[in-house]
Amino acid sequence: MFCGASQKSAAAAPGGKILVPGMDNQLSWRIVTPTLSPVILVTGASRGLGRGIAVQMAAEGCSVAINFVGNQAAAEETAELCRKASRQPGQEHLPIKADVSSGSDRARLLGATLSKFGRIDALVNNAGVTPAVRADLVDADEASFEELIRVNLQGPYFLTQAVARHWLEKKPGAALPGGHKIVFITSVSADTASTDRGGYCVSKAGLAMAAQLWAARLAGENIQVAEVRPGIMSTDMTAPARAKYDRLIAGGLVPQGRWGTPEDVGLAVRAFISGQLPFSTGSVIAVDGGLHIRRL
């Protein structure tokens, strides 16, 4: 966990540093720089996987910018859960309303995060939608396809661009081990075809490539990028198909034999952002209970 210097028996020192007692606790003092609370921007964090990620990052000692598009009450619930999970003084958890599919909203989201927190250390591209109506490929309409691409792919692609430009131009120091981090939350649908959700599959496949592209571009800039690829997750988004997936899981589709949870995804993101995978930029982290394993 990210920990700042102890405030007990501490004294101020020039340059924003802190004097703390040495080993003998009386005769000598040493100067340390307090560890900043890293700021993590999580899109679509009012519920579901985004909430699970936000709470895990709060438990890691980070402050969280909780992006939401419409449900203010749910975003406030996430903020309260983050406060309860927090482990050190100075952590803040604030909801910020913005639609990632809108260019002006993306600019406002980044601006509001920097204004409220003064920094951004990691971006988690989690916001996404499923088709309002599942339809066979031969019947699906363009309006649904366009919305899925705009929200699930175009939004995170260009929000990443905006955050990366900020880091490259301003060159702020990172409060995370190993530098700044970006995470793309994709889906098993990135490489598993569902012919009644074609637009969704295409959007997630594109997002998986976006993760590879940004990882390659930013690796030399001390910015790590990872793709976290969830499987069948228990969220509001999958609730309408609960009975179908219950049957498939019972039939052995998922080797570990259960639904995934927002906490499962949050723990994977937490491991990456906290620096536990320092030599793994561009990696695809499967959180699917073994669903991706090819079996005979």
What sequence of helices (H) and strands (E) makes up the elements? Answer: EEEEHEHEHEHEHEHHE
Tell me the count of domains: 2
Helix fraction?
A: 25-40%
The CATH class of the largest domain turns out to be Alpha Beta
Terminal Cα span: 41 Å
CATH architecture heading of the largest domain: 3-Layer(aba) Sandwich
What gross morphology would you assign? globular
Averaged pLDDT: 91
Strand coverage percent = 15-25%
How would you write the strand order of the largest sheet? Answer: 6-5-4-7-8-9-10
Number of strands: 10
Gyration radius, in Å:
21 Å
Q: Figure out the total of helices.
A: 7
CATH homology-level superfamily of the largest domain = NAD(P)-binding Rossmann-like Domain
Note the topology.
Blueprint: E1 11-12, E2 18-21, E3 29-32, E4 39-42, H1 48-59, E5 63-68, H2 72-85, E6 93-97, H3 103-117, E7 122-125, H4 142-170, E8 180-185, H5 198-218, E9 223-230, H6 242-250, H7 262-273, E10 284-287
Parallel strand pairs: 4-5, 4-7, 5-6, 7-8, 8-9, 9-10
Antiparallel strand pairs: 1-2, 2-3
In words, what does this structure look like?
The chain has 7 helices and 10 strands. It is an alpha/beta fold and 296 residues long. The protein has 2 domains: 1-35, no CATH class; 37-287, NAD(P)-binding Rossmann-like Domain (Rossmann fold). The strands form 2 sheets. Strands 6-5-4-7-8-9-10 form a 7-stranded parallel sheet, with helices on both faces. A 3-stranded antiparallel sheet has the order 1-2-3, with no helix packed on it. The longest helix is centred in the middle third of the chain and has 29 residues, at 142-170. Mean pLDDT is 91; it is low at 3-34.
